Amino acid sequence: MLLAVFSDIHGNRQAFEACLKVARARAAERFILLGDFVGYGADPEWVVDTAMDLVAHGAVAVRGNHDEAVNTTTENMNNEAQIAIEWTRGRLDAAQRRFLAELPMLVDDSDRLFVHSEASSPKRWHYVRSTADAARSLIATPAHVTFCGHIHRPALYSMSVTAKMTSFVPKTDVPVQLLRGRQWLAVLGSVGQPRDGDPSASFVLFDTVSCQITYCRVPYDIASAASKIRENGLPPWLADRLSQGR
């Protein structure tokens, strides 16, 4: 089965629509959503409704820290992110907020694990920035492949049976074989707010039979997404950063 895995959509309708279109064109059979549906972007209602429909048709979804923040005041965020969350709260209806609140923190699926941040302590929202961070996550699960987001920058880590770690940044559209003799941590880039210097939206395709993963980048209408952020009175930097990929 070919999985299309998305993370950190952040209310960016234009980016999510573009990624879904490409995933479907490449014959994705199942959709996996790794959280942070809201925050930063100007279309939280559309993104959450789309996620709800995908889940109703068999998609897997987990909760991100921005999704958590919609329904609680305990999440600590920077000023711009907090402004966007408060604005988002006023846009979502009860059903949309309940959907976000009821999402699981992680999902085990055969020999795969899906989580927003990392596996050792999902609700503490740790970032995977290093091989040490990746090792902590990998040790916490027997899964062959763990998929996570949160950091908005693509990376791929692996750990051997002797706990030797490797890491690299995968190239766009170049399949990588995830060998069975190692555990793997696939860190996705972001659909809605990439931060690796490439403004195009990011997602991955994973073939469950061949165990090949392919990191994909998708151009989208950044100008429209940015314009809508400004029109809604959200912090201008949230619009400006989209064209910079940071």
Q: Which regions are unreliable across 5 or more consecutive residues at pLDDT < 50?
A: none
CATH-defined topology: Purple Acid Phosphatase, chain A, domain 2
The helix content is 25-40%
> What CATH architecture label applies?
4-Layer Sandwich
Explain what the structure shows.
By secondary structure, the protein is an alpha/beta fold. It has one domain: Purple Acid Phosphatase, chain A, domain 2 (4-Layer Sandwich), CATH 3.60.21.10. A six-stranded mixed beta sheet has the order 3-2-1-11-12-9. A hairpin with a 5-residue loop joins strand 7 and strand 8. The longest helix is centred in the first third of the chain and has 13 residues. It is globular. The mean pLDDT is 96.
Short descriptors:
phosphatase activity; Ap4A_hydrolase; alpha/beta; six-stranded mixed β-sheet; Purple Acid Phosphatase, chain A, domain 2; 246 residues
Write the layout of secondary structure elements.
Elements: E1 2-6, H1 13-25, E2 30-33, H2 44-56, E3 60-61, H3 65-70, H4 79-89, H5 94-101, E4 106-109, E5 112-115, H6 131-139, E6 145-148, E7 155-159, E8 165-168, E9 176-177, E10 183-187, E11 201-207, E12 212-218, H7 222-231, H8 236-240
What's the quick description here?
The protein has one domain: Metallo-dependent phosphatases (Purple Acid Phosphatase, chain A, domain 2), CATH 3.60.21. Helix content is 30%, strand content 22%. The chain has helices at residues 13-25, 44-56, 65-70, 79-89, 94-101, 131-139, 222-231, 236-240; strands at residues 2-6, 30-33, 60-61, 106-109, 112-115, 145-148, 155-159, 165-168, 176-177, 183-187, 201-207, 212-218.
